[in-house]
Design a protein that fits this description.
Elements (H helix, E strand, L loop, with lengths): L7 H5 L5 E4 L2 E8 L5 E5 L3 E6 L5 H12 L4 E16 L2 E17 L8 E4 L31 E6 L4
């Protein structure tokens, strides 16, 4: 279980997080450092918005998502704090603080509840910056979020 707010310190730190394809550092398509990757947390979990750079890799990624070849994502992180508990003779690991390193569009995700879409607004947008107005900012996180980590990535195609 990933506790709600577990990404907060990492996201607030301003560290450079990269968007990759299949966790391959040689296939970088965006990063927070240059503004082509935006990250946040809402009541559902981690969300990301990628504006892929105009490279062969970036264009190929948008087309792979648009066509349905790639439809999910995964994340790379370091566990900073965790808590273990037991319920019904099962161990439960709760990640309370993690350092997010990268997000990846993948064919085989660790978390099945992830989703990816190509934002249809991007077809007519000239400015690469699109604000996500659907994100709810939690006021006080609950003790922990029992749902699986959910993430959504929006690939913004250049028109």
């Amino acid at each position: 279980v990933v506790q709600r707010g577990a990404f907060s310190n990492s996201l607030d730190s301003g560290s450079d997080v990269k968007a990759l394809v299949e966790h391959d550092p040689g296939r970088i398509v965006a990063r927070t450092q240059n503004g082509s990757l935006t990250l946040g947390e809402d009541k559902t979990g981690l969300w990301v918005k990628v504006s892929p750079v105009d490279t062969t890799e970036g264009r190929d990624l948008v087309e792979a998502v648009r066509s349905g070849l790639l439809s999910q994502m995964s994340i790379g992180f370091r566990v900073l704090e965790e808590r273990w508990s037991y319920s019904n003779n099962e161990e439960l690991r709760t990640l309370t603080e993690v350092d997010l390193v990268e997000v990846s569009v993948v064919s085989e995700p660790a978390y099945q509840s992830t989703s990816i879409l190509v934002d249809s607004r991007s077809e007519t947008v000239e400015d690469d910056t699109i604000e996500n107005t659907d994100v709810e900012q939690p006021t006080e996180p609950p003790p922990f979020d029992n749902s699986a980590l959910r993430a959504k990535i929006e690939l913004l195609a250049k028109g």
